[in-house]
Amino acid sequence: MNTRRLAVLLAVAAVVTQAATLGEGAPRQTEGPAWLIRLSTWIELVAAHRPGAIDAPARLVAFWPEAHMDEVRTDFVALAALYRRELIRSARPAPVPYRDTMLTVPELGRLLGLAEAEGAQERANLVLKRAAILYADVAMLVVPLLPGQFGCSAGASMLVKDGTRIGTGCVNVHWPQGRALLGAVKPDPAKDETVRLWYAATIAFLLQTGNYANARPQLEHARLLFRLDPDILFQGGYYHEAFASPLIQTVAVAAGSEPGGGKVHLENAEDLYRRAVREDPQFVEARVRHGRVLALLGRRQDAARELRLAAAAAEGPQLRYYAELFLGQAEESVDNLAAARDHYLRAAALYPQAQSPLLALALLARQSGDRSGMREAMAKLLALPFARRDDADPWWVYTRWQNERYEARIAELYAALQEGDGSDRTRVRPAVGDRQ
After folding, report:
1. What pTM value is reported for the model?
2. How many domains does the chain have?
């Protein structure tokens, strides 16, 4: 066991002995049935957690059994509904039965941290959202440090590097807990901006880290809630485009997990990108990727039309580079060789150290019988520094999620919780990479 993991385990042991000091929410329930004490502890841990921190609540919850997480979520949702029902009836002195316990309405309010009648639903939503963020932080920050299979389900995800299977990873138990919590947000999670932010941010994290086993159910639930959301549609398109890549398909087909092959993923990606552009015609990155996928599917004329629109609207050097490079390929595929050359030259001008447009120019010149042009492009290509630098040619990072910038989405999610429950937060698409 390495030093970092040992430190985490020692910290967890300290958390267990100091748990009574945690929390700013409801007072700790120290007597009664185990489920009631567990629920009170959970509410306290949720209130005490600082979003984005590997703190005591996150470390402790990382070791909770899945059955206990199911139990406290079910109990909180049921008791919150019971509390709201009794408030509507006007609080009565008679105790209310739940499981093996009789609770008065004031006791319910104190237990849940919803003591005041006014705004009880909003506060219950806030607990649910904070708990979902706690579980997300556990999955993103704590579980990777833990030994063995703590925080993982019985299943396993396949880990791939450069087209080679290198092992299995964790199918995390905390992501479905977060989804279930947010599904209980009232009156409708599909109309809540913080719920949407949670999905967009966590999916971005999973895509960036290549955690497709956990990203898939996250995307499926997000699309059920936010069917027309361009960001969620775009993320789904990226997932399928990435899965269609040769590096992933090589291993997936060999393992027998992809009977349909990459073409099915490309078709799904095309559908999702097209719908994202339809919902937001100014979503240039979605249009660029849509054009590339159309080209990979052999729909050359459609690809050229889409990429012409993308190139005309793209801003920022990196997105413009992709648009020009892919448009050059699309124009070449429909025999517009002069136009293709112009677009390759524009891409090369944006990134003079990039290999991809120079190689494309050399191949285009060879196809056209322009031996002088081919030699010129190859001479420039061979004069480039030998070592590959990702910042020299954006093509090398095209398959990385948003060029490794999920952090802006996570920061927006945390900010939403700091401002309240975030349900009325004005929607702002974060600037990620060169997205327009």
Report:
1. 0.85
2. 2
158-178 exposure pattern, b = at least 16 Cβ within 10 A, e = fewer: bbbeeeeeeeebbbbbbbbbb
Residue tagged 């793209």 (tokens): 314
Element (H, E) at 157: strand 152-161
CATH number of the domain residue 334 falls in:
1.25.40.10
* Distance (Å, whole) CA 233 – CA 50: 30
Most confident of 80-89, 103-112, 264-273, 410-419: 264-273
Is residue 369 situated within a structural domain? yes
> Is residue 301 assigned to a domain?
yes
Q: Comparing C-alpha atoms, which of 219, 256, 223 is closest to residue 239?
A: 219
pLDDT digits 0-9 by tens, 86-135: 877 765 667 888 998 898 888 888 888 876 656 788 899 999 999 999 99
| Chain segment 37-63, per-residue pLDDT in tens | 999 999 999 999 999 999 999 999 999
Q: Among 141, 162, 183, give the residue marking a domain's end.
A: 162
Q: Is residue 191 part of a domain?
A: no
**Tokens 């955690």 label which residue?**
211
Full residue range of the structural domain in which residue 295 is found = 280-398
Sequence-distant (≥ 6) Cβ neighbours of residue 357 within 8 angstroms? 324, 325, 328, 344, 345, 347, 348, 351
Identify the DSSP state of 190: G
Residues 7, 143 share a domain = yes
Q: Which residues of 40-66 are buried (b: 16+ CB within 10 A; e: fewer)?
A: bbbbbbbbbbebbebbbbbbbbbbbee
Q: Is residue 321 scored above 80 in pLDDT?
A: yes
Classify residue 240: in a domain, yes or no. no
